Amino acid sequence: MKILVIAATEFEIEPFIKENNSADILIMGIGIPQTIFNLSKKLFEKKYKLVVQAGIAGTFNDKIAKSSVVMVSKDTFGDIGINENGKFSTLFEKNFIEENDFPYHKGWLVNTHPYFLKPDLPVVKAITVNTVTDNTFQIKKQIEKFNPDIESMEGAAFHYVCLRQKINFLQLRSISNEVGERDKNKWDIKNAIVNLNIELKKLVQNFI
Q: Which end of the chain is more exposed for a tag (fewer CB within 10 A), N or C?
């Protein structure tokens, strides 16, 4: 049984890949569909004691500094639902899914890994979206509904697959930008990736 490290793009974990000799690597591609398909396929082929997702993300929370690294304790799909008369409702709110139907807990995909009993990194909650936007109205509505700390395009899909397959997992994220800011000159991708890979290496070593 080994550790599997996954990322949406090779770019995000390239430093780890160059030094890695202890974990399997899976580059899934960007977005929910590729994450669900490629991760599920890999997990059916081989058993792992831990799966670690690593990547950069945007933050809604101005108390979370750019280039800092966080661990996601719970995630959910932030834009799967019904949009009527300018109001977004989740599938739970429309009673299409019960909010506590497995693998959900109160509408969230919650990680109960023992790591969270004594975490080494700040713990956050996230939403996962199909479309990244600079629309301030939409961002405001997401904050009001979910009160998330960060946003990605794969995290909830990762949680969903691992919870359904009952596999230990951890989602590691480094903050590259504020949600809604699309001017890449104001992002800090370089330092976000450096710090992400430092923490990723430490995390894998701790679980070998």
A: N
